Amino acid sequence: MPPAPQPPGSTPAPQPPGSTPAPSGAFGVREAERLLWRAGFGPSPGHAEALAAMGLDAAVTSLTRPSGAPTLTGAAPTVDDAPLEPRDAWGHDHLWFLDRMVRTDQPLIERMALIWHDWFATSTDGASQAHLLDQNELLRRNSLGSFETMASEVTTDPAMILWLNAGENRRGRINENYSRELMELFTLGPDRGAYSETDVRELARALTGWRHDWSSERGDHNFRFDPARHDAGAKTIFGQTGNFGWQDALRLCLGNPAHASFFVAKLWGYFIPAPPSESDRRALESIYVGSGLQIRPVVEAILKHPQLYAGPRMVKPPAVFLAGLLRNRRRAVDTDAWTWASRLAGQQLFRPPSVAGWDDERWLDTSTLRGRWVMVSVLMDDQTIPSDQMKAYDALETPEQAVRRARDFWGDPAMTPEGVAALTTFAATCLPAAMANWEQPYYRGLRQNALRHLLATSPDLQTS
Amino acid sequence: MTPMEAEAGGCAGLSRSRLLRRAASAALPGAGLPAIEAGMPAPAGTGLTRRAFVSRAAGVAMAVYGAGKLGVGAFEEGIAAAAERPAQPVLVSVFLEGGVDSLSVLAPTGDPRYARLRPNLALSPDDGFAFGEDPGLRWHPSAAGLRVLHDEGKVSVFPAIGYSGANQSHFTSRHFWEVGATDPGGRLGWLGRYLDRHGAPDNPLQGLSLGYDLAPALAAGSVPTAAVSKPDDFDFWTPGVWGRMEEPTLKAIGGLGLGADTSDPGLAQARSAAVATGRLRDQMAPFQDGYSTPTGVSYPTGSDFPERLAALAAMLAAGLPLRCVSIDAAGGYDTHSGQEGSLPRNLKLTCDSLLAFQRDLEARGLAGRVLAHVWSEFGRRPAENGSGTDHGAGGCSFLIGTAARGTMVGEFPGLAVLDGRDNLRSTSDFRGLYRGLLEQWFGVDAGPIIPSAASFAPPQLLKP
Prior knowledge:
The complex is a heterodimer. Chain A folds into two domains: 29-310, no CATH class; 318-462, no CATH class. Chain A is 49% helix and 5% strand. Chain A contains 21 helices and six strands. Chain A has a two-stranded antiparallel sheet with strand order 1-2. In chain A, strands 3-4 form a two-stranded antiparallel ribbon. In chain A, helix 4 crosses helix 16 (318-329), helix 9 (177-187) packs across helix 10 (197-206) and helix 16 (318-329) packs parallel to helix 18. Chain A starts with 28 loop residues before the first helix and ends in an 8-residue tail after the last helix. Chain B is α/β, with parallel strands linked by helices. Chain B has a domain at 90-200 and 298-455: Alkaline Phosphatase, subunit A. Helices cover 35% and strands 10% of the residues of chain B. Chain B has 13 helices and eleven strands. In chain B, helix 6 packs across helix 12 (339-363), helix 9 (246-255) runs antiparallel to helix 10 (265-284) and helix 11 (304-317) packs parallel to helix 12. The longest helix of chain B has 25 residues, at 339-363. The relative contact order of chain B is 0.19. At the A-B interface, helix 9, helix 17, helix 18, helix 20 and helix 21 of A face helix 1, helix 7, strand 7, helix 9 and helix 10 of B.
């Protein structure tokens, strides 16, 4: 999850009907490239140029308001040449979602599904893959719609009911798990004074009544509300008293004065690494509340914000990094190696570390960076210059030419001058000191393979 | 995807099969890799001496990389540097994620209120083992490993540790323990701050997270730390790169991070991860073909936790310059439901592993300079919720090691008087424990590391 929003000021200022700053600065190919990384999975060949030609507003709208159903282009995913079994086979759930990221023509929809998967982080540690995939469709369906509908559907979603023990929360036997996380992680945020421990317990009473059956043939099924399990008594939540039920619980959370500021700051954190200014936050709140808790207009305002383009770089989440590599090379999802490589890199989909999701501030360390190296290894395994072609490689290639060719191999991604310099230094020093004539092309071919690998795992390409 | 060439050098295929095998062993519980390397039995009872291990490690490395390749690798430099200094004390932080139920680990069977609060979950007064220091408490049968070590005087028990105003969010309370202060905005771990002041500028192993990502307690501001899942799992597969190109390529991983200083936090994270990864690869190279465990020492199998502890003992025996190590215990402890199913299993695996680790250190002659601190973010509510328990306040902690004083710190507060939210009161504060570790174990001033250290009296943690 992105950093938790900071506590709002002690006296909430009245919301001015403002708007976020108007876009400033050029919107060229590099800006379009960054937009595609933040709002999707990086450019496929030609996409950044096409967006740059549209201009910022049209480019953002093309992402946030795609027409019709998404099209998946390219070969369907396989493992060992067989179709995926995403609801049953280990790791195929990850591959199924990854494939959508790679092949969709509506990348923001998949990126939003990934964001909501982090926001409402649910794991196959507590629910079946089939339940998680159903939840994933729920998140995708609501990804840019009403947050109220989203919260309502998540609350009654079997995967979530199983994950946070909502089915065991019943009259006389209160289980606080969902109540606490609903406020702390999903709608209000911790340590902001938005709710008390008493509210956690009272809200849990309002949420009582969900149950389901289990059988060896069908597993957990028949999820339903059972009035006999519901605590129908009076509860006091955020100072209001009533015989509240689960819909009241959601209404109270989304109507809590701390919700809108939590929502917009958390959503912002998925797209822009530095927190929004006070005035930007208030403007976004105004858009959010004014639209009746719609997600799309808030996302559009964030994607058009100058800070997205002029601000600091952002570390790509591992799933985004990997989907971007595959889109870039037009490579199909054709091996379950992507699942375990993603696990090494710190983001196996449908296996978040906890209900708080992944820690977006610490994606890169010695362990996870090695995981990204493995991702590139798996990808490069059939994309290197093979040994029988080495003797025909350019025997006169200079270090600068070698780096240029490696950058072009990856579609000329944005790089820092230091990143280019470090690669060039490597290219200038890695060849053996003494080479026979036949080794001149051979080692330059090996150098090109090494440069492609090093470039893809370099600090520049871990960020956008 | 068209399958291309199949002859990119034998190294790639070999590396790939090793990676696949390791990933499979990590993915499938119960299929861990063998810890003992064939043909290299350790001397019975004594373990390997540092010198024996080093020379053996060099042999392994030569077998992998070929004669002459090792040269003046960083591993030898690390050994040499560590050998020149007196052996450093080592702290191993063991985290039980989710909030372990302290009232099950050390059950207050002598208190009649216990059975009333826990009609389904209470430990029977004739189950488990007597706790020598307080006849009102009994060890859970699954905590037999701790009980054995406690009877030997090697476990200091904190039966009710916490802080005033206990926060019942997993993520907030855990964060307090990690940063060593009740500060929601803290950015550096308490061990990270210790290393910032007293560590080395160029040794990632001084703060080692044994896991898939960095432990927040080890997050440092200015010195490198490392995360590695297992030390024998840190090789780098380079398809299409072999022969005299391979080692320069791997050396370049760290070199790519050596750009100019950047004020961009995302890029800075990516660059420092690259530098630390390159250095760690050098340090870990000798372990890539495994390690051995002393004869007579037997760890539980089928779990990452005991395998990582076994690897840790081998790394310490090799003289690697470790100081602070963080590792997650086996399983999860957020037992809102089904507590009787999961808790005994996970607790037994954790305690049996800790016992084996202590025996391993004793066999290797290292027990005097290693302390393990076992902790969890909070305890659980005394009143059960049916089949489980909700978040509580005061919990338990243990300090394990030959040097540990081996007596209780703070008494068990009893169940007659709970705090204002019906949770266990705490009788010791985690910041006092941290202060004691810094002052008594590491021999440094806690004042600059633990905020308001002076207001938390440190208990006597070590044997006189």
